[in-house]
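Incident log, entry 3
Record: YbaB/EbfC DNA-binding family protein (137 residues)
Problem: checksum mismatch between cached and fresh output.
Input:
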Amino acid sequence: MDIDIDYELDAVARRVEQTDQQAAAHLDRVGPVTGQAANGAVSVEVRPGGQLSAVHLTPAALSGGAEALAAQIMALAAQATRRAGAAMHQALAPVLGPDGERHLASLGYEPLDNDSPDIEDTVYESPLGPPPRRPRR
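Fresh output:
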């Protein structure tokens, strides 16, 4: 049985192109994730890859002192980054096939589980809505 190398290479190229198009369509739905303290004094924005892109403060944010403000910004940014990674995971896992979740996890894009600690009095927004809840194992 002879193998037609050109045919096989064309088939691989078609699968790569199809996967690329599917991934691009899913990624178009992923936008920044915002995290905001419930009182609205501090908010952060994180891009899908986890890069902090904006920090917004009101005068009320300064009332607790510099250390408390820094801690709140870091906590909001960390949680928003985890949520951005979960959004990336949610968007790309269906496209990447059976090994996709493992590859995404190696990049730090993991779904949020039911035990993920949330910051109290914090509101988060993601263009994909809340991440799906995974059953406890």
